[in-house]
Amino acid sequence: MGKTIYTRTSAGESSLRIPCNGIYQLQVYGASGGGYKTSNGGRGGYAKGNISLNAEDIIYIYCGGRGSYNQGRVSGGANGGGRGYCYGDSGDGGGSGGGATHIGRKSGTLTNYKNYQSDLFIVAGGGGGEGGFANYYSKGGDGGGSTGSNSQTTSYTSGTTTGGTQTQGGQGEGEGSFGQGGNASSNINNGGGGGGFYGGGAGVEQRGGGGGSGYVGGCISGTTSMTTGAGSSNANGRCIITLLEADTMTLGTQPILKMYLGEEEIFMGYINNVAFPRMEV
Q1: Helical ranges in the chain per DSSP H
Q2: Nearest C-alpha neighbor of 145 from the set 67, 96, 239, 216
Q3: Cα separation of 88 and 71, whole Å?
Q4: Which of 30, 109, 176, 192 could cross-link to 170 by cystine, CB 3.0-4.6 Å?
Q5: CB-based burial of residue 260 (10 Å sphere; 0-12 exposed, 13-18 middle, 19+ buried)?
Q6: What is the Cα–Cα distance from 260 to 79, expressed in whole angstroms?
Q7: CA dihedral sign, ordered 131, 132, 133, 136
Q8: How far apart are CA 129 and CA 211, in angstroms?
Q9: What is the model's pTM?
């Protein structure tokens, strides 16, 4: 049930003015990590939760950018994806991390919420970038979820590259931090960490990057869920906002229409030219 009032599938930021008092469901997917083989980039995570918002509130949505691949240093995906590094030939690993997707009351990337976490509603973590080399690729870790996944181990990789958690960034060549995946910097084929509530670590010794973690602490308790790796391969982050219940007649600046069905009084409102009942959508 409910009426979808907003979707976004491209990387970057946008704002939304809330049309009416009510309960809204927020769904976010993190972006995937990059790689020579795009399927080796970690998938973004998924998070869902409900929140009570008022008419005319302004919220900010930032969808993560998918990681990329090239020889040399590779910039991370928008909103916290960590830098990858492909030192070898074209076809070796070294993709960058995918960015997180978040919704909150402040404009800007997720790192802007470090000292304003009470304004943050929800986050889905980005996937880590691919590491390794031809025939021995190390898949990046998937984004969270409460915890991002570690990157894949192969017979030609060593060391440990971990995903972000609810309290700290992932470990690796470059450590993840709040809102930011770890950056690969050495002359070897390491993947960048995925962005997230806490970002994943960058790869160590030809490993992929770890996935970033998700967050639902700003949503109504009992309405939340998080899933690691539920996003699509080779994809930007995305967001879906659904109006579940309009709990008052206050529909922002939109007109109110009162109707009767027999002797029963029914209140309707118009939001973007679509009619909604007063109490249930």
Answers
A1: none
A2: 216
A3: 7
A4: 176
A5: exposed
A6: 49
A7: negative
A8: 9
A9: 0.87
